[in-house]
Amino acid sequence: xxxxxxxxxxxxxxxxxxxxxxxxxxxxxxxxxxxxxxxxxxxxxxxxxxxxxxxxxxxxxxxxxxxxxxxxxxxxxxxxxxxxxxxxxxxxxxxxxxxxxxxxxxxxxxxxxxxxxxxxxxxxxxxxxxxxxxxxxxxxxxxxxxxxxxxxxxxxxxxxxxxxxxxxxxxxxxxxxxxxxxxxxxxxxxxxxxxxxxxxxxxxxxxxxxxxxxxxxxxxxxxxxxxxxxxxxxxxxxxxxxxxxxxxxxxxxxxxxxxxxxxxxxxxxxxxxxxxxxxxxxxxxxxxxxxxxxxxxxxxxxxxxxxxxxxxxxxxxxxxxxxx
Length: 324
Prior knowledge:
Elements: H1 3-18, H2 23-34, H3 43-46, H4 61-79, H5 83-103, H6 129-145, H7 151-186, E1 190-193, E2 199-208, E3 211-220, E4 224-225, E5 230-234, H8 247-261, H9 263-266, E6 270-277, E7 280-292, E8 295-304, E9 310-317
Antiparallel strand pairs: 1-2, 2-3, 3-4, 3-5, 6-7, 7-8, 8-9
């Protein structure tokens, strides 16, 4: 999840754990909820020491415990208070960060450095604009109330926000369980959550020496499947030079160039759609994971019909048909 949601959820967890009369520990817990993402500062070292990369050691129980121990040492010197209370608050904040990231499609190694096993439940998007907007509104309300309203109103607001986020995570979690059963029944291999907590994508990707086959279908809780299954198969190894005579050949020809153009596209579930153009084919290769407000990130490849040459550029646009 985004940094601001991590901080807010850790704030609410600390509020529930310590009560409204412990602002120091609530603040410490909120700070610890965001600190694991400070691993971006290790970027220069991450190539040599991968454990220091994003979603590395700082997103493990060992990492958040080290951060909490540091807070327990220095926080009482700066703000007063009890060291073990600061440790507990920052440990809870750090664990909430791990749990939230593991709840999404982002993987975290909770037991590093003792185990490199990664965990992700695919129950929410790692970057969800709907959640970010909800968090922005929540922060605005809390800051507006600060020193302007009676403490009782702040307490009620905090409890209401805690209930809203708990409900959101419950809907996401139960929805994931429901869709998992449908995935197994329908023979898909994966599930992709969307920004809408009720909308999911069932995906099946088969990578073979001769090519890649992708099949996906949209599912909405309460409505069922909202359209037919979309299927794609590409055979880049079978492409030849020279003229391109059809949409399938345009996809085969543009596939290697599109994957080289965008590393995130090659590492995510993807699909493609072909649109004929004068003297060419336009192939939109797009991610089924990086989408919001009806648009998705991808690569637009223009394949010249006469020469077969391919030109690519990254775009953020609405898929012409199959993305719905």
